[in-house]
Amino acid sequence: MLKLRWRSVASAKLHGHHEHVTNHGDIVSKAKRSEMMRAVRQRGTTAERAVQVVLRDLGARYRVNHAGLPGHPDFANRSRGWAIFVHGCFWHGHRHCRKTKGGARGRVPASNSAAWESKLEANRERDARKERALRDLGLRVLTIWECELRDSTKLQGKIARFLDRHR
Fold first, then answer.
1. Would you say domain 46-164 falls under CATH 3.90.190.10?
2. Which of 14, 46, 60, 77 is in Cβ range 3.0-4.6 Å of 55 for a Cys bridge?
3. Domain segments of the chain: what residues?
């Protein structure tokens, strides 16, 4: 299978790959883009596994994707009163993120930007509702952003401080 790594649509056309360029400025076919988007995991992501390692190292006991709590937090301990969400910076619209280089509204793709803006804003609103519902139940909530995983020492410190407030 041909893997394209062109920096722009113009570059792809220049190198004779115009048949892969759609009218939306994408350099892969609609079917290939759909296949790529389906491959994005919702659970058991690399980011979640990194947080899981830190929680295990800290001796924290937790449930993964706790179905009995609003929003199914990625990690939760109801008896200790805490929940942790691990958010991907792009999908959850992390504002001013260094990883995605997003500004005040997060990173929005250039093609079909209005639809993406609406989707990412809806994701942010849903995340806020989930967090409020958990807080209403008396749980403390921590959100770990994907970009925070770069520095494992800081990540471990942040989670340790969060858990220490609950012991």
1. no
2. 60
3. 9-38, 46-164
